[in-house]
Structure formats: C-alpha cells, structure tokens
Amino acid sequence: MIDQASKLRTMVKDKNMDNPIKIYSILSGKGGVGKTNFSINLGIKLQQMGKKVLILDADIGMSNANIMLGMSPSVNLFQAIVGNTSLSNIIKTGPEGIDLISGGSDLFFMEDLNKESQEKAMEALKGLGVYDIIIIDNGAGISKQSLTFTDFAHEVILVSTPEPTAIMDAYRVLKAISIYKLKKQVKIVINQVPDISIGREAYNKLLNTANQFLDIELENLGFIFSDIRVNKAIMEQNPIVLRYPNSLASENIDKISKNLLGNKDFDYNVSSLKQLGNRIIKFFR
Ligand SMILES: Nc1ncnc2c1ncn2[C@@H]1O[C@H](COP(=O)(O)OP(=O)(O)OP(=O)(O)O)[C@@H](O)[C@H]1O
Ligand SMILES: [Mg+2]
C-alpha cells in the first residue's frame, strides 16, 4: 500500500495546465452522516458555478448517488470493459448536466482483468472527456478502497455529524490518513448541526485532538444544518439545492461550494485526465 501510494504521489506531481482537474475524495468514519447527499449537491452547485463535474460513486455494493440524483443506475466500468459496452453507457448525465459514473468496484476488479483489458479500461478512463472537478463519494470507514482514493485525490473532505461517536470515527480516519501519510491537510464538513455552536464545538473537538496527536492540518470548510428538507428532497429523488434552493441546508452547501472555489489552493496540484488514468494504471501494476 505504501509503495503504491508513493508511486501515485509521484504521478500526482506531474502537471498539465492545459487540462486542469481537481479531484476530491469525500470520506467519513461513521456511516450515514450525509456524504452522498453532500457529494451530489456540492457537485450540482459547482456545476452551476460553471465547472464541469463528474461524480464517481465509489461506495462498493451500496452505491446510491444515482437514486438521490433521480437517475437510473449506470452500467459500471467493469461491465463495460468485459461486455464491450461503449463509453456512453458508463457515464450518465444528470440534473444540471452533472455526470455520474459508478466506478469504484470496477477499479478494484481491475486486478482480475488481463493486461489487454486493463489497457482497454485505462483508455476508457482517459477518454472520459474533460472535467474540471471529480468528486469521489466513498463508502463509510477505513477501507483499502477509501484510502486509495484518498491518496489518489488532490483533496480530502471528511464529513461528520456532531455526535461524539461520529467525531470519534472521524478522528480514526484522520489517524489513518496521518499514519499512511496520505495527506497533510484535510477539509472538514460538520453536517446535521442543530445550531452553529454545536457545529463549532464538534469541529474544535476534532481539531484539538488532531493537533495534539496527529501530524495533520484541518480546515473548517463549513457546517450544514440539520434540515428536514434534506429528507424530503431524498424522498423526492431531487437534490435539495435544486428542489429547495432556499432551504438552510442548500444555503450551507452553496457557501461551502464558494469556499472551495474561492480557495486560493484551487489550482495547485492539477493534472490532466490522461494523467489520472496513468495514475490508476500505475497503481494496479
Ligand atoms: N443536513 C441534513 N439534515 C437532515 N438530514 C440529513 C442531512 N444530511 C443527511 N441527512 C440524512 O442522513 C441520511 C444519510 O445520508 P447519506 O446517504 O448522504 O449518508 P452517507 O454518509 O452517504 O451514508 P453511507 O455511509 O451509508 O454512504 C439521509 O438519508 C438523510 O435522511
Ligand atoms: Mg453514501
């Protein structure tokens, strides 16, 4: 894992300013804290702000981004490669022109493919088109997959609720990131906060513990209020930022999107989609 990670890191250093792309890995310790809802709504907001966004649903076996987006499930990459399905069947375009690919499990079945199929898979990935931003929605907890995507992405956004159990699990994820030296900095979103003071308290708890025990820097990306319209929007299979744009949670996600784009770091460590494909293939060799 460490060896693979260092290979990946070497590749990340390559720059191609012609086709900059920024990859975010969305993580959590505890399950059900709101990663998928955040990922799709963040993606839609960024798309509305003029970025071309791809969501990679990497929650193996439990992928549900398509349901929240009101989209039918896409053929995954593995099926496409094995069944010679065309690329257009892998990518589904959803609301506001956001693209979705169910790719996580496929990438990890890559090891089972013969060399020719691996090459084909990489060619497929490279040919995905040009995106400004890829958002990887991971499954909960620490797994080989989520750590790999964390290493692979340029930035990590760790989502937690203010509950002590969720904060403790978020800390465990930070610890893993720190131990494997995957990232120096992690952005934090505290979701489902009843009020700002509880959100701040939870963030500070995580910050203080990380400062004390880990070699990792945290950045508070923002809070999202607990909002019944999140549940309503999910029931209606219509992302909240579209269905209830004036709701508290939508306003919070809007602010977080602006924080991300306003981030002075936005253009650093960029790489082209082609390099992204190369980075994945390096990992599996
Ligand atoms: N801001 C919020 N306010 C109220 N409810 C919320 C909010 N965010 C998420 N939820 C609720 O939490 C549930 C879980 O959300 P989501 O599926 O996005 O979590 P997840 O972290 O992706 O879960 P998993 O770990 O299973 O992938 C949603 O169905 C919704 O009901
Ligand atoms: Mg999820």
From TrEMBL:
Originating organism: Wansuia hejianensis
Record lineage: Bacteria, Bacillati, Bacillota, Clostridia, Lachnospirales
InterPro entries: FlhG, MinD_FleN, P-loop_NTPase, ParA/MinD_ATPase, YlxH/NBP35
Biological process per Gene Ontology, one example term: negative regulation of cell division
Ion transport among keywords: no
GO cellular component, one term: cytoplasmic side of plasma membrane
Keyword ATP-binding among record annotations: yes
Keywords per UniProt: ATP-binding, Nucleotide-binding
Gene3D superfamilies for the chain: P-loop containing nucleotide triphosphate hydrolases (3.40.50.300)
Protein's UniProt name: MinD/ParA family protein
Record GO terms (molecular function): ATP binding; ATP hydrolysis activity
Coiled coil regions, renumbered to chain: none
Domain of life of the organism encoding this protein: Bacteria
